From TrEMBL, chain A:
The lineage of its organism: Bacteria, Bacillati, Actinomycetota, Actinomycetes, Pseudonocardiales. This is ABC-2 type transport system permease protein. The chain crosses the membrane at residues 18-40, 46-70, 91-117, 137-159, 166-186, 230-248. The keyword Transmembrane applies. It comes from Saccharothrix xinjiangensis. It comes from the Bacteria. Keywords: Membrane, Transmembrane, Transmembrane helix.
From TrEMBL, chain B:
GO terms for molecular function: ATP binding. Residues 2-227 form the ABC transporter domain. This is ATP-binding cassette domain-containing protein. Belongs to the ABC transporter superfamily.
Amino acid sequence: MTLLAVERIKLFSTRSPWWCMLLALGLTAGITAVIAANWGDSPIPVIATVFTHSFGLYVIMVMAALAVTTEYRFGTIKSTFQAVPDRTSPMVAKAAVVVLLSALVGEASAFGSWGLSWLLADDTSQLALNTANDWRHVAGVGLVYGAGALLALGVGALVRQTAGAVSIILVFALVLESVVGFIPNIGDDIQKWMPFTVANKFVMGDPDLSALPEGAGPPTIGDLSPWGSLGYFAAIAVAVYVISLVVVKRRDA
Amino acid sequence: MIEAIGLTKRYGKTVAVDDLSFTVAPGRVTGFLGPNGAGKSTTMRMILGLDRPSAGRVLIDGKPYTSLDRPLRTVGALLDAKWVHPNRSARAHLEWLAKSNGLPSRRVDEVIDLVGLTKVAKRRAGGFSLGMSQRLGIAGALLGDPKVLLFDEPVNGLDPEGILWIRRFMQGLAAEGRTVLVSSHLLSEMALTAQDLVVIGRGKLISQTSTEHFIQEATENTVRVRSPHSDKLGAMLVDKGFTVRDGEDGALTVSGASSDQIGDIAAASGVVLHELSPQRGSLEQAFMQLTGDSVEYHAELVETGK
């Protein structure tokens, strides 16, 4: 418990996490507000209120990566390991704090966006959260943010440099995953197993594709069910994170 | 008490620390002396469990660092004063350190007061001067009231007032019975601060001894003698058991004898002396002589006009 308090103090006594959280909330809720206000006469579907969740995901992943790379950048990781030489427990405590916080930001962003849509859209007749799928579209954002944060922590601990870790995350998510689709013949098959593509299916997908309302955006791709997609994304995050724990333990600090 | 046994660290083919064994006793300031690149910082990181030794081990009161329970209560260290997040306040920095080892936040106020940073405790550490950063680092090292303290080049870049403060501070800590290991590349500084010395060069132990003894041994006192009958005088001095070397311009360099003794011998045998002058080696010369072969990065002297 004390180590959780330590990581909480570390995270909240610098400014960048606050800025990242504000930015994640502002980007998602702000753009959703514009979408909702311009939706027009047709009823706005629940799923439209979380179109923007991926913007926030990238910002939250940058925050999570920073939580560990700044420790390497400023040498405080050495003080941390001096204070707790087993290394694994402070890294796990850091993950617990950052993942929980990211999940909370995810929920705040999703329900905030959904709430703003109630206020700004003309026709909100389809906006109530009636089905399990409706709940997953909105509440699921927090789970994806949490898993994404864990993935980013792992990448950050492996790479140790802010610029490197952030570039890897953003280039992978924003460029690589769409570019692999252009590879002839096998591109589509690779793309549908890329982690961020799969994570997107958890939030935006539907077990019955024909049940998706009109205006639900481009169809989500992937062979897994929505919850299977979350499991797949989380498994990748856990794998990268566990590898980082092993490397951190073995490497000279 | 710190005990290094056969400590070795290799980075690929480079051997940074080579089979290093030494002990650091409590109640004294021990200087860890060596030229830049000799392996002092690497050794200190191994003492703290931050770097893994390639061979050998280092024990603190009989235990490796990594098996200490709440280690800040046993060992305090200042390896680099800049190991602080620049946007975190001095107080927040010490707060998380204290929390991690179950130390009360009352202790944070105490150490801040002890190093004289009370007025700036809420300011961001990135804006601190080097002297203030050093004080913050020392506050961090003292948090757990540890029996063993390590300081890596603590006076580097400080003004004379800061140097004096740190020197007195370390001596005070040793006087309280703590084990204090402080690294430096300046023998002159260590001569004023440390009672014992562990001297290394290129990762190897050169000497472990008291500072006084090291300086005595290292700064050989010689006498320069110039005489028209230097051959005769030289032979007589060698007969008496002194060491005689041929110096420049036909002068002799005699070690082991005082100028009085040489003057007496010369007068007794009627040898004319043109010069008789005692030479005292400087600390820096002695240090360079001892570690001269083991300096990692030589600055080659450029020969001109030849």
